[in-house]
Design goal:
This protein has about 90 residues and is an all-alpha fold. Helices cover about 85% and strands about 0% of the residues.
């Protein structure tokens, strides 16, 4: 289970980074920005779910979830910075 969550967390990180780059490139095109925001919402929902899932497993003393927790914190911080800079 942890390998699946790790792979999906890394995929969400890459997907959200590419969506944020696409969002900034298409600053004058509102249609692309709407689609980017629509794709961002489900990816962020998974990141928040994986964050709490890994936090619960870290509290249960499972060490293999530290990497997933770190990736999700990094993804959330990048999203917060991108939101503040926008």
């Amino acid at each position: 289970m942890s390998k699946v969550v790790l792979i999906i967390s890394i995929a969400c990180l890459m997907f959200l980074l590419s969506l944020q780059i696409l969002y900034y490139i298409s600053y004058s095109n509102q249609i692309i920005q709407i689609f980017v925001e629509l794709f961002t919402i489900p990816a962020m929902l998974f990141v928040v779910f994986a964050f709490f899932f890994s936090l619960i497993n870290i509290l249960r003393k499972k060490k293999e979830y530290y990497l997933i927790f770190g990736i999700n914190i990094f993804t959330i911080l990048i999203s917060i910075v991108a939101t503040v800079l926008d």
